[in-house]
């Protein structure tokens, strides 16, 4: 164990590695294994029986040779009986090995399934700042392959240690039982075996890790390329990327070959040692048989055992790599479990949200993602229930950050954000998020039917309600034109629907879930002007009776707002109605002129609503 700890620390290629050591990782695993204690005991029992059944077979042959054949026993019945027992033993060995494997897999897979379940739940509870730090690729690895490696810990490492370890012990006991002197001679071989294993171990580990590292490089490269495929094609980078891929592919290929070569060499060296010892025993024991100090049957059994002796040692040594990667995986998973969400519900926060009207106040808010770079400086904004607020400003002005604070994806550094006078930090997140409906640039649709996408798989919402909502936002015509109408299955992320159609469906969600506050963050940025008009109409319906905040790329979306907030570098620089702001001739007017100019320059006046955002 001690050795192992050093091993995985030396690994060092995990930058976000936890400080948790292995003993606590295994302690954590033990918590998951505990409910399966009886299954593990069952496995242990099966292993004992299966090993006994396997190892008694040569012993039986020895009995047949020494007690009957060489004594000239003519009784065929006893031989028949022995053959029968032999058969029984091998059937028993088969049955119990089968049982043992199934039980162990059952326990291992159950443990891993429950770890995976908790892990996913834990990840979904993390605050947004956590996802800023953790690339989703590595989270996917943790949930999928790291948990699988833990399963290998059970199905390979634990099994091998138990089964092969016990087999070794049994073989040694049996050998001593057969002939002490011969056994002692054989044990001389042990140091040679150990030396061989040690010599190979570090080399095997190196080649193994090299292969893993090269594989993850390859995978990362592919992932990166897929994500940026349009850039690659637009800039004609295909050749260059193919070259780079080929290089990585070759490196992985070579390291894989090296790993395989090492493993084969190691296995064969064990075979060699096995053969050597058989020759050794044949020579020593043969002389003893000739000198009548050892019966022939004993020699036979001995040779069989010494052959069987090497297999388990070989297998156990090979578990080393699996054990190492299992420890690394476990540490990674446990470190995820150790992270506490930075945004948390106050204990005992029980607020009644049923009577909320939707008044929103930002009181002297200061905010930054990282400690040194303030994103919102000192912001006061007071919004009446039912008011519609438009928010404009160039990219990076802090509009989305403002929304994130209202949704409490992050906590303010100073000041407060309140809804109907209650600090959002005092409202349990679940309730807070029920109060707010957020529509973003790219609405998220799940694979499932349209009905389920609108009601978010909540069966409490009836089909009629869904249909009514879709009618209200004007999505009904579109949906009814689809092949299966409301039951049309959307593929992942709703591909197959246009951006505007997806947006309409997310609007229907708002109607169904009736949040008191509605937020649109660049919801119309991706739309053509026709879809935008549809959304515009839907917005008029959806915003009815709700406090609505609209961050918009296009002026037409917010021109009718009760009030427009103009943001610049984390501050509100102007506010008022569209007309007033234009008359004021300030920053807003400048933004407006820019967008007008852009439209004229593009030579397509009226082709879309004027965009006032540079981004
Ligand atoms: N998750 C984040 N981590 C760190 N910085 C961020 C993050 N999101 C936004 N920022 C920074 O905060 C500033 C405001 O961003 P944002 O609120 O998204 O602006 P807007 O929505 O107006 O375009 C920008 O400088 C941006 O780089
Ligand atoms: Mg934004």
Major sheet summary line: 6 strands, mixed
Task: Using the coordinates shown, work out and report the CATH topology of the largest domain.
Answer: Rossmann fold
Q: Bin the strand percentage.
A: 5-15%
What ligand species are in this complex? Answer: adenosine-5'-diphosphate, magnesium ion
Helix content: 55-70%
Please report the distance between the alpha carbons of the first and last residues.
56 Å
Q: Order of strands across the widest beta sheet?
A: 6-9-10-3-11-12
For CATH, the homologous superfamily of the largest domain is named as P-loop containing nucleotide triphosphate hydrolases
CATH architecture grouping of the largest domain: 3-Layer(aba) Sandwich
Gyration radius over CA: 36 Å
Low-confidence residue ranges: 1-20, 603-615
Discrete helix count: 21
CATH class of the largest domain: Alpha Beta
Number of strands: 12
Structural classification? alpha/beta
Give the key terms:
disordered C terminus, binds adenosine-5'-diphosphate, alpha/beta, binds magnesium ion, P-loop_NTPase, 10% strand, Rossmann fold, 3 domains, ABC1_TM_dom, six-stranded mixed sheet, 615 residues, transport, four-stranded antiparallel sheet, ATP hydrolysis activity, ATP-binding, ABC transporter transmembrane region fold
């Amino acid at each position: 164990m001690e050795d192992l700890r050093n091993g995985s620390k030396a690994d060092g290629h995990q930058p976000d590695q936890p400080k948790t050591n292995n003993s606590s990782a295994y302690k954590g695993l033990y918590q998951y294994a505990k409910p399966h204690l009886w299954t593990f005991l069952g496995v242990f029992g099966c292993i004992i029986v299966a090993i006994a059944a396997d190892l008694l077979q040569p012993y039986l042959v020895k009995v047949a040779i020494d007690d009957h054949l060489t004594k000239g026993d003519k009784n065929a019945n006893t031989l028949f009986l022995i053959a029968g027992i032999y058969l029984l033993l091998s059937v028993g060995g088969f049955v119990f090995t089968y049982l043992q494997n199934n039980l162990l897999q059952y326990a291992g897979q159950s443990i891993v399934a429950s770890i995976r379940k908790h892990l996913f739940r834990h990840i979904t509870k993390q605050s947004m700042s956590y996802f800023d730090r953790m690339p989703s690729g590595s989270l996917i690895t943790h949930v999928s392959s790291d948990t699988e490696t833990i399963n290998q810990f059970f199905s390979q490492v634990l099994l091998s240690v138990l089964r092969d370890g016990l087999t070794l012990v049994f073989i040694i006991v049996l050998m001593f039982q057969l002939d002490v002197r011969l056994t002692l001679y054989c044990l001389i071989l042990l140091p040679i075996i150990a030396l061989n294993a040690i010599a190979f171990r570090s080399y095997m580990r190196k080649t193994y890790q090299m292969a893993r590292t090269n594989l993850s490089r390859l995978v990362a490269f592919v992932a990166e390329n897929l994500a940026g495929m349009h850039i690659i094609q637009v800039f004609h980078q295909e050749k260059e990327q193919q070259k780079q891929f080929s290089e990585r592919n070759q490196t992985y290929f070579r390291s894989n070959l090296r790993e395989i070569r090492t493993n084969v060499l190691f296995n064969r060296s064990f075979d060699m040692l096995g053969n050597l010892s058989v020759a050794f025993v044949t020579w020593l024991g043969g002389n003893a048989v000739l000198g009548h100090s050892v019966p022939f049957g004993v020699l036979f059994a001995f040779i069989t055992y010494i052959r069987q002796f090497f297999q388990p040692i070989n297998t156990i040594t090979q578990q080393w790599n699996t054990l190492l990667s299992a420890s690394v995986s476990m540490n990674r998973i446990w470190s995820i479990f150790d992270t506490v969400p930075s945004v948390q519900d106050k204990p005992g926060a029980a607020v009644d949200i049923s009577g909320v009207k939707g008044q929103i106040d930002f009181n002297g808010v200061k905010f930054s993602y990282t400690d040194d770079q303030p994103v919102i400086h000192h912001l006061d904004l007071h919004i009446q229930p039912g008011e519609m607020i438009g928010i404009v400003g160039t990219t990076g002005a802090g509009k989305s950050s403002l929304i994130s604070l209202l949704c409490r994806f992050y906590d303010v550094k100073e000041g407060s954000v309140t809804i109907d006078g209650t600090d959002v930090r005092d409202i349990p997140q679940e309730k807070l998020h029920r109060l707010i409906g957020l529509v973003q640039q790219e609405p998220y649709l799940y694979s499932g039917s349209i009905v389920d996408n609108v009601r978010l798989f909540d069966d409490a919402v009836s089909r009629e309600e869904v249909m009514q909502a879709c009618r209200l936002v004007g999505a009904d015509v579109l949906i009814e034109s689809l092949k299966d109408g409301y039951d049309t299955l959307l593929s992942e992320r709703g591909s197959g629907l246009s951006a505007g159609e997806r947006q309409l469906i997310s609007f229907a969600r708002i109607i169904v879930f009736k949040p008191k506050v509605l937020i649109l963050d660049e919801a119309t940025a991706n739309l053509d002007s026709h879809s935008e008009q549809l959304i515009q109409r839907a917005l008029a319906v959806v915003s009815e009776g709700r406090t609505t905040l609209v961050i918009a790329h296009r002026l037409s979306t917010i021109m009718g707002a009760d009030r427009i907030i103009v943001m610049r570098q984390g501050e509100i620089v102007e506010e008022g109605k569209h007309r007033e702001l234009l008359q004021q001739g300030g920053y807003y007017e400048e933004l407006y002129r820019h967008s007008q100019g852009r439209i004229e320059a593009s030579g397509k006046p009226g082709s879309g609503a004027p965009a006032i955002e540079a981004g």
